[in-house]
Design goal:
mainly alpha
């Protein structure tokens, strides 16, 4: 998939986050490989790898959501959207962004006090390794939702007057309907006796 170009000032922030996040899967694989070697080869398992991998994966999941929003690559049902006229597409986009913003505001409003308390008390995971996963990930969720909502608004502003052209799906549907219509016309002509007579008369004239 071709990467969507930067279209606004917020995209620079999103791209910067994504360029850091792209190395996190390699980090997770590396520490899990280290754990496997230590556990099954040297007989000395660690107590920090499992929780650290969960910690990193949680942050990666949040960062990926921001990048996916900037790239317009979230799962969407295009079969109806792409067949709509441009004004109706804009209406759908506005409704979608409105729902995203409402959800983000509700999540931040409802979770701010709890996230602040976890951060100020530096709440830990409650295990032997005891990393501060709640103290870091809970505030990060709210920060991510705020950036995601702003990114959705930025996308809407840029895409509002951007001519996306005819979608490939709409073109394919038009071609398919034309192909079906042509086959039906050929079938009717082959079943019509008068059509065969016209063909025979034309052959005799020749």
């Amino acid at each position: 998939m071709e990467e969507h170009k930067r279209t606004g000032p917020l995209d620079l922030v999103t791209w910067s986050i994504s360029r850091v996040a792209m190395w996190l899967p390699m980090c997770i694989v590396s520490i899990i490989f280290f754990e496997v070697m230590m556990r099954y080869v040297f007989g000395s398992p660690t107590m920090w790898v499992n929780e650290t991998s969960l910690w990193i994966a949680g942050a990666l999941y949040l960062f990926a959501g921001i990048y996916s929003m900037q790239q317009r690559s979230h799962i969407r049902i295009y079969i109806l959207y792409d067949l709509c006229p441009r004004w109706l597409r804009r209406t759908c986009d506005v409704i979608s962004v409105f729902c995203i913003v409402v959800f983000a505001v509700a999540l931040i409003w409802g979770g701010f006090d709890d996230a602040l308390r976890k951060f100020l008390t530096w709440e830990r995971f409650g295990t032997k390794f005891d990393p501060p996963i709640p103290a870091t990930l809970k505030p990060l969720i709210l920060i991510t939702m705020a950036i995601l909502a702003l990114q959705a608004i930025s996308n809407l502003i840029y895409d509002w007057n951007t001519d996306q052209g005819e979608s490939q799906l709409a073109e394919n549907v038009s071609e398919l309907m034309g192909y079906i219509g042509g086959n039906q016309a050929d079938a009717r002509s082959s079943d019509d006796p008068s059509a065969h007579d016209d063909v025979k008369r034309s052959q005799k004239v020749q």
